[in-house]
Automatic annotation (TrEMBL):
Protein name: IS3 family transposase
Transmembrane portions of the chain: none
Function text: Involved in the transposition of the insertion sequence.
Residue ranges annotated for the Integrase catalytic domain, each copy included: 119-283
Source taxon at top rank: Bacteria
InterPro entries in the cross-refs: HTH-like_dom, Integrase_cat-core, RNaseH-like_sf, RNaseH_sf, Transpos_IS3, Transposase_IS3/IS150/IS904
SUPFAM superfamilies: Ribonuclease H-like
Length: 290
């Protein structure tokens, strides 16, 4: 009607289309507001796209909204969801991964000290560990990690072309060296042969820590550790590397520069923060209490 009103009268067009003239003039009066909303949506979509690219195309609506709030952008979450849906901007959905767990023979597993309670009141109280692998033209590269349940920070990790017990021992020694583990800290894992080995048990005993293990065949008993490795495989994107050195470099960058320092997760008390920021909050609280 707007395009034809110079050729035919508005009254005639409204009568032909069975539209009230008042409705047409109301729509016409709102044209400026609609143009302004579209421009604002386009500007917000640009910000969302930048944040999505910075997250390596992994963030969905909750973390994109949290990032906007951190940038002091007051925007409704439903509006973010609508804009992302309209422009086909979506986060990563995790896939199930094949387990490396191979129960050791003739070993006595440690007691489960967590009971699927993957929380901790302070850093250095509870660690969970697991192993995964990635493919390269040179063969498999294995990765062992230890995650602090209070901060969800990866405090120790190790990579090698094997998954013998020394792989998880090296990762644990890294955790000891870079974080303040409390006496009697629980180190929890599955019952794989690497974790039931004498080498790891001796190391845990010498460090004054306590070993804990979930049940055989129950992935939920070590869900926090498995969840991180599933997240890494999905968000890092690459499925096959040309060599182990390249894979090692990209995994290092993901853990150290993105996951620990930039990737947001929802803390039950403090809201969306990075693992590093959560650790700093705990340290600040400890300093104030002292």
């Amino acid at each position: 009607m707007e395009a034809e009103k110079t050729t035919h009268g508005v009254a005639l067009l409204c009568r032909l289309l069975k539209v009230a003239r008042s409705s047409f003039y109301t729509w016409l009066a709102g044209e400026q507001a609609r143009t302004a909303r579209k421009a604002a949506d386009d500007a917000l979509a640009h910000e969302i796209t930048v944040l999505h690219i910075a997250s390596k195309h992994t963030y969905g609506v909750p973390r994109i909204h949290a990032e906007l709030c951190r940038l002091e952008r007051r925007v409704n979450r439903k509006r973010v969801e609508r804009i992302m849906r309209e422009r086909n901007i979506a986060g990563i959905t995790r896939r199930r991964r094949r387990s490396l767990t191979r129960p050791a023979k003739k070993t006595v597993p440690a007691t489960d000290l967590l009971g699927r309670d993957f929380s901790a009141s302070a850093p250095g109280q509870r660690l969970v560990g697991d192993i995964t692998y990635v493919a390269s033209d040179e063969g498999w590269l294995y990765l062992a990690t230890w995650l602090d349940l209070a901060t969800r920070e990866i405090v120790g990790y190790s990579m090698a072309d094997h998954h013998r017990a020394s792989l998880v021992v090296d990762a644990l020694n890294m955790a000891v060296g870079r974080s303040d583990l409390q006496p009697g800290c629980i180190v929890h894992s599955d019952r794989g042969s690497e974790y039931t080995s004498n080498e790891l048990r001796c190391e845990i005993g010498q460090l004054g820590l306590r070993q804990s293990m979930g049940r055989t065949g129950s992935c939920y008993d070590n869900a926090a550790a498995e969840s991180f490795l599933a997240l890494l495989k999905e968000e890092i994107g690459t499925r096959h590397w040309p060599d182990r050195a390249t894979a090692r470099s990209e995994i290092f960058a993901f853990i150290e520069t993105f996951y620990n320092r930039k990737r947001l997760r929802k803390h039950p008390v403090w809201g969306y923060l990075t693992p590093l920021e959560i650790r700093q909050r705990h340290e600040q609280g400890h300093a104030l209490a002292a």
